[in-house]
Queue: 3 jobs
Job 1
Amino acid sequence: MKPTLLILAAGMGSRYGGLKQVDAVGPAGETIIEYSIYDAINAGFGKVVFVIRKEIEVPFKEKIGSQFEGKIAIEYAFQEFDSPIEGISEFPERLKPWGTAHAVLVADGLINEPFAVINADDYYGIDGFKSMANFLINDCTPKTQSMIGYVISNTLSDHGTVNRGVAAMDDHHMLTAVNERLKIKRIDGVIHYDGDDGQPHPLKDKDLVSMNFWGFHPSLFEDIRKDFIQFVADQKDHPKAEFFIPLFVDNYINSGRIEVKVLVSEDRWYGVTYQEDKPIVQKAFSKLVAEGRYPAPLWGAKVANA
């Protein structure tokens, strides 16, 4: 059975200033999502599930969903702060959804096979999708999940600091924790982050970071649902509390419920957080096309596994 790709596309885009999930970055007007799905199809994925908000459904389907007719199966899940979850009769009032783990949970019922999770506005590279598909097809079990680890030097910005979840691993490349590091940048050629003491602390160029590219077994949905029910009860008076993927992953690793294999990608990661990022990403895709890694237009050539 081919794995599924779950794409989290319900983000508000407030810092970016618009619906960045449908913004063109490729030389023929392609979006980042299109490149991710192109890579996923070629890697062997068989279905895509988008998590979006109802208010963006029409423009999203017109711009994005219509691109994939006849190429790969597409389904949609909707994330709102009160998206129905079995076991919760009433949600506390809030203005935003409950975070990335909640976004995964709303796709329960649409996914019955091993699946990967990515952000809609991040470019993860060809090799990452190949490694993930191979893991999901051959090695994913209820006990063993995965995460793509990106070399931190391939995820930095030349235009300011970034925050990254730095992976801590054992000798077998199994994840032990994801440690959030803030305001990462190079200082005199060395990568540093700002510690709790306000001082810069060094990181190694080859340290691995999480960019929210995970591989899960569908049996995990039931555990996530139970934990989310408890999270909502505990955080009913905290309207900004969010249920993030690393939160439940960390809990499950510590409890021994799962182990997470870190799969290394040497690909360059690109993301669009602010409008100023867009020209940089556009230039990067133009270069990838010039190098022959993608056709232009992207869908002008038949993909390998369509």
Job 2
Amino acid sequence: MQNHEIDYFIKGEEMQMVEIELDPNETAIAESGAFMYMDDGIVMETIFGDGSKQNSGGFMNKLWGAGKRLLTGESLFMTAFTHQGSGKARVAFASPYPGKIIPIDLSEYDGKIICQKDSFLCAAKGVSVGIEFQRKLGTGLFGGEGFIMQKLEGDGLAFCHAGGYVMKRTLQPGERLRIDTGCIVAYSQTIDYDIQFVGGIKNTIFGGEGLFFATLTGPGEVWLQTLPISRLASRILSYGSGARKEEGSILGGLGNLLDGD
């Protein structure tokens, strides 16, 4: 294996955390803001990019590898946690919102998984976190995730986070699944990703589900989430502004007044 071999424990139900067990000189990498705690003997270091071999070979190569992450809305930097003591030590990373943490062994998927831009949480050192361009114009324009998604490459463990309940589907050759674009978490590289127009005047105008489905065609694996963060955020915003629907217009205004809003 080129990637570090790590053991892990996922704890919690709605708000999960992953605890990674490191042997001496083993390293885990994580997105900024995911860190929860670490044992004595583990040293934290901010690095350009992801620290993989694909981003080595000189400053400009590292800068280019880190700079590509800006296209997916991520930071130039990641954080590496290396166990420099003796015995075993643990470092933990927490999920950013209610949902599930998905462990993915990249060696089981020919060394590559494609995922939505904000789903990556942490991984064993050596896993490359890059960008995946959508080759089809329609998919890039209307697919919900745009032209650019993340790709995770290597032969080690990576951890993604998804909102709500997570379901894994195995698609047979030629089997097609139509999905709301925001509900896709990740899929294997053998999956063909495209978009399909919903169709129908009533569906288009009054359906409230958008104009396009994402279509995934097998063979391969796909991970789906029930609560995309965009859907959660829009619901919170709708309840945070305007009258309280559950109290009626008059009582809603009175409740806001009593609450100091």
Job 3
Amino acid sequence: MRTIECDVVVVGAGPGGSMAAKYCAQGGLDTVMIEKKHEIGAPLRCAEGVSKKWLAEVGIEPDPVWIRADMVGAVIKSPSGYAFKLDESKAGSEVGYVLERHLFDKALARDAVKAGARIMMRTYCTDVIREAGKLVGIRAKSMGEPMEIRAKCIVAADGFESQVGRWAGIDTKLALNDLCSCLQYRMVNCDADMEYCEFIIGRSVAPGGYLWIFPKGGGIANVGIGIMGTMAKSGEAKTYLDKFISDDPRFKKSQAVETVGGFVSTCPGLDCAVDDNIILVGDAARIIDPITGGGICHACRTGMYAGQVLTECAKKGDFSKGALMPYEKMWRDRMEDKLYRNWMAKERLAELDDETIDELVRLISTSDIKEVNVYNLLKVIKEKFPKVVEGFEDLI
């Protein structure tokens, strides 16, 4: 059987995997990244919206090649049509670019290669390898050929499914309320405002989640929906999304040219995303914004942190769980409070009826908020609807 030896093997070439591979390679580690698909970034499994503020933090320079649209602002709507429109000066981190995601992912993979990482396409992990109880690499198939990739540490960047984490013995199970059933169409010839992202919330519109319109310019927009797992029946996401589109005159002459569906995790991260000789990043570690389902930023951050910590581990020749724990501290110090706060907010908002959602949006629209983000919205909500934030007031 073919065998490859390296320092680090990264499973998955999404944003988290590519960032981990880049920073590992920059640190002098012999890094191999595998990708099961035939093309990085495709097929699309994303609404393609990102904020702008975190890009510099992880060393990504904005590039017109992968920026499809630069949003002026956002609109939040309630079930009865109450709307709160805000421009980017107030939108804070909730508004930014709409990407061509497949080009964005390819750009990150290119950066990993420039740093010295090796990529193997059409190569998927089939199991982990243990010897004397220790993880020593993965088993894989590359273009149908069985092989082994032996490494000092595994980076599991294999997304929502997170098979590598499970095989390594890490509990990645999710409660049904921490799953979101999603469906999205790419609509063409629509009359939606091409300068504003739109978010529609309410139980009658998207139970336990929200419906979105992310414009891509030229009458094209990603139109999608997410429904909380405990509130979703089979096929229900499609029923709600199709009804919204058929009832909205902006889509009267529009057609879908692409459909994507799947699940998103909406919990505040795993209890621990490391073990001896393995790190989980991004969606695989359940590190994703529970209230928006946004995960690109979190994947890039955790991938960078993983690469930085592995570089230090290599200097000491120690990839044990204890040696990898600085990764846990890094992502938790940067994101844990916000993730937990947004998870609690997600749980509470799912309980509200449409009338209360209408009142919330009216309240927000008349409030003097200098920068609109989840934190500041919750501060306003706390004054009028304290029960919504009960149990996590100290995070607001």
